Amino acid sequence: LRAGGSGERLGGATPKQFCAVQGRPLVSYTVRAMERVSWISDIIVVVSPENVGTMKSIIEKYGHQRVTVVKGGITRHRSIFNGLKVFAESELPNHLLQKPEVVIIHDAVRPFVEEDILSKVVMAAKEYGVAGAIRPLVSTVIASAADGCLDHSLERARYRASEMPQAFSFDIIYKAYQQCTDYDLDYGTECLHLALKYCETNAKLVEGPADLWKVTYKRDLYAAESIIKGMCSSLWLSVCIFLSLINSLVCCSF
């Protein structure tokens, strides 16, 4: 889980992954979503060095299991690379985790990921080596010329939005990062492209559900809070209905 962003687009002093949603940090919901998947053996959360203590406190407070906190780098790719090193290099004193066959890369600010899409990208990665979730483009993508005028537009039907989660054969993605140039590490954003560029492995694209969206702006936080509040209300309603049924059965037994 990459959780090293500064939240610049969100505004405010608190990085978005640590913003409270219904009284709980956003990253905690994403960790919990991963914990619910029994076949995920380890959860690596990569945070900026100054937030390591904050993340460890969250893990302790909410009782998260199977979680290791790793210091991130100054860019997205450098942070992901640091997370991968935990399985291959002695980055943590006396604690080298067992190398997985497949590794999932996901954003800490995408809390609504479900086991179904995780399973689909992992199974595709086992078959193809690399896989990633995609969604249809909502808006047409255009390119501007140097003078600020329209240069050209893309045919929307041919393109897709790259989303998370993505899954990789560990050996493929780790080799790709080892061979990366500094330019890729500092300016790149797409992990699937690295696997293609450095390992000649073309990703299998998996159509994902609508709830893979990323909390980026303040309005997204409000939307996330509304969804989580609705989920909690539905759970409470289910409990009430279940308890009512139990009471009815007890009454009938008399």
TrEMBL record:
A biological process term (GO) from this entry: protein O-linked glycosylation via mannose
Catalytic activity field: D-ribulose 5-phosphate + CTP + H(+) = CDP-D-ribulose + diphosphate; D-ribitol 5-phosphate + CTP + H(+) = CDP-L-ribitol + diphosphate; D-ribose 5-phosphate + CTP + H(+) = CDP-D-ribose + diphosphate
EC top class, as a word: transferase
Pathway(s) this gene product operates in, as recorded in its UniProt entry: Protein modification; protein glycosylation
InterPro entries registered for this protein in UniProt: IspD/TarI, ISPD_synthase_CS, Nucleotide-diphossugar_trans
Domain of life: Eukaryota
A single Gene Ontology CC term: cytosol
Coiled coil ranges: none
Subcellular location: Cytoplasm, Cytosol
SUPFAM superfamilies: Nucleotide-diphospho-sugar transferases
EC number(s) recorded for this UniProt protein: 2.7.7.40
Gene Ontology terms for molecular function: D-ribitol-5-phosphate cytidylyltransferase activity
Main location: cytoplasm
PROSITE patterns noted in UniProt: ISPD
Keyword vocabulary terms for this entry: Cytoplasm, Nucleotidyltransferase, Transferase
Subunit structure: Homodimer.
Function: Cytidylyltransferase required for protein O-linked mannosylation. Catalyzes the formation of CDP-ribitol nucleotide sugar from D-ribitol 5-phosphate. CDP-ribitol is a substrate of FKTN during the biosynthesis of the phosphorylated O-mannosyl trisaccharide (N-acetylgalactosamine-beta-3-N-acetylglucosamine-beta-4-(phosphate-6-)mannose), a carbohydrate structure present in alpha-dystroglycan (DAG1), which is required for binding laminin G-like domain-containing extracellular proteins with high affinity.
UniProt record similarity statement: Belongs to the IspD/TarI cytidylyltransferase family. IspD subfamily.
Official protein name in the record: D-ribitol-5-phosphate cytidylyltransferase
Organism the protein comes from: Dryobates pubescens
